Amino acid sequence: MTISNEKTRIAFYGGSFDPLHLGHLAIAKRLTEVFDLDEFVFIPAFHAPHKRRLAATPAVDRYAMLALATNNEQNVSVSKIEIEVPNKPYTVETLARLNELLPDAQLFFVMGADSWRDIRTWREWEKVLMLTNHIIVTRPGFDIVAGHLTDEIQARILDVRGESNPEISDVNESRIYFTDAVNIDISATQIRDMIRSGDESWKDDVPKEVAKYIEKYQIYS
Fold it and tell me: Residue 40: in which H helix or E strand, if any?
């Protein structure tokens, strides 16, 4: 990841990406347009600590699939900031580090509706929501609500669903944006299940480069 320290808008999208699918890429492209981002960065987790599934695909394979799929995407990149850290950092630690590395940039952290629903299970979740701006992306079957959060957190929420060019708050005032700019129902879990069951239709849900990698190295076989 090569990013200058100019006052730019940079979004970071953390997750397992096991595997990366077309829904993930749609989020990168669409949010870059809607929020006028200068760069969109995927952050594959070494292993998502809040997820119960223990046997995650090796980080090197998930990173490789991300790199292949984004190689020709302008302003979209992949960071090793989590997979290169031996102590498997929590999101709160990663965001704090990004703030140190990019003190003059306006940072956004992207999460899906399912992660938002479970945010209270994250390590120091309130601090996570204070460290950067956040973009919460809708997903079919998941309601985006805020009743499970503190009044302080709720006061920072801006619901920009239905807006194609939302007004972004001042760089020094972090906000939480609810957006329906992307509303695609693709599940990495379902893709893995389809591969293991022999259902070839999974190839319709991932980039061609990712499908070839999965088949060549038998990632989910």
Answer: strand 39-44
